[in-house]
Amino acid sequence: MAKPGSPGGPGARLQGQTVVVIGGSSGIGRETARMARAEGADVVLVGRDPGRLRDAASDVGASSTEAFDATDPDRLQRFFDELPGRVDHVMTTAGGNYYTRLADLDFAQAQQQVDDHLWLPIRIARAAAGRMPAGGSLVFMGGTGARLPALGLVVSSPLTVALPALIAVLALELAPVRANLIAAGFVDTPLSARLLGGDLQRRRDQLRDSLPIERVVQPEDVAALAVHLMANTAVTGATYDVDGGQQFAAGT
Fold first, then answer.
1. Which helix (H) or strand (E) is 109 found in, with range?
2. What is the value of pTM for the model shown?
């Protein structure tokens, strides 16, 4: 069996294909790059921080990196225009969440969320699709935590609901290139650690006690699904949940 970071052997599902991971320097993106490389793909990592990208590229065996802000539409378009050869798959993990009550809403931060969750997928789709073969795929990240209305979700809830509809439309617009969405709950990533700080272990313990899977979802859980969506050419326009049952578990 090929070890992570090395090209796949006979039967590797992505042998000879190129995978671009936007947000690939850590967490879910980095694990997806690692698994795609193990399945035989050439991997290109995109992120904002050159140093973190170099570290990730060395770790997973990426063929190249590009450091820029993917929400810059001109730079994003130029990146895809300048890539040599075809692009078989693009995954983006860029973007975060913004939780606040209406009275405390910062409209600049709210607008950034709209850019990250709606305009960025649209721009990636238009920039990349012309470089992709039939059966190629775009894989986007969403979430399950804001599907139900709640205080503090004035921005996150409508974006969470809108994203699956956008992906379904992109699947029709881009055909035979495919588009799919992964909706995650809490994932134990470096970003989660930074956001929660000293509360991280308490959150892990809470989820282990309440989730049906009796463990915390890891980046490799999401990455395995992302690689499956790249390899399975019968899947498009779909939203796949990977949250360990968090959305219907009491106390989460």
1. helix 107-114
2. 0.91
Question: What is the spatial distance between Cα 53 and Cα 65, in angstroms, rounded to a whole number?
Answer: 6
- What CATH number is associated with residue 214? 3.40.50.720
Which class for 210: exposed (0-12), middle (13-18), buried (19 or more C-beta within 10 A)? middle
Q: Does 221 reside within a domain?
A: yes
Residue 210 covered by a domain: yes
In a domain, 3, yes or no: no
Here the tokens at position 244 are: 């360990």
Residue written as token pair 């009550």: 101
Any domain includes 2: no
Task: Verify cis geometry, omega within 30 degrees of 0, for the bond prior to 164.
Answer: no
3-state secondary structure of 138: strand
> CA-based angle 191:96:188, to the nearest 5?
30
DSSP for residue 153: B
Amino acid residing at 129: A
| Tens-place pLDDT, residues 115-125 | 988 999 999 99
Taking a C-beta distance cutoff of 8 angstroms, is the pair 58, 120 a contact?
A: no
User: Looking up tokens 């990977």, which residue turns up?
Assistant: 242
**Domain span holding position 98:** 18-239
